[in-house]
Amino acid sequence: MPLSGTTTRYGNLAQAFHWLTALLVLAAFLVSEGGPPARVYAAERASTLLLHESLGFAVLCLLVIRLVWRLFDRIPEPPAMPGWMELASRVTHWALYALLLAVPLSAILGAWFGGHPLTVYGFGAIGPFFAPWSAGAALADIHGTLGDIIMWLAGLHAAAAIFHHVFLRDRVLSQMLPGLSDPSSGVGG
Questions:
Q1: Of 49, 118, 124, 145, which is most buried, counting CB atoms within 10 Å of its CB?
Q2: DSSP state at residue 64
Q3: Contact indicator for 158, 150 with CB cutoff of 8 Å
Q4: Burial class for 87, CB neighbours closer than 10 Å (0-12, 13-18, 19+)
Q5: Is the dihedral of CA 133, 138, 141, 143 positive or negative?
Q6: In the predicted model, what is the mean pLDDT of the chain?
Q7: Collapsing DSSP states into helix, strand and coil, what is residue 32?
């Protein structure tokens, strides 16, 4: 499989970006404990916060790389489907991209406006670059809500891909899974 996409499949690099992003988002969600700032920034939770913030920072960096690659990569043509399904797919994909940006940015700004640095493996403490402001706590709450939304939307995205594969037997899922052939081709599986 080539690095670049074809008319029917995403390339190896786009697939790697997709699955690494999914893994990082899931890991960041699972290690997050949330709560009021006094609890989130408590000394006994520093290692968990460092891991969570590092994962979130990695998601943000990977998103930038992924979007730059998308400018140069060939995107597969969607399989034939009703117009409403294609529109739902496009809206969902762009909503996921927006959330991949908004979730880490809301955390970073929430921390900085709350008077806390962002802690990232290899970089140490970054910021804060702003004077503490009461909006920090509100941004932290928004971050938590957006984190929940991205998990629900990603779950819906995965369920739709499985529905396409199992019931519609088209290539929606196979074009993003390494080694999975197009079910409509009658080859492999």
A1: 118
A2: H
A3: no
A4: exposed
A5: negative
A6: 91
A7: coil
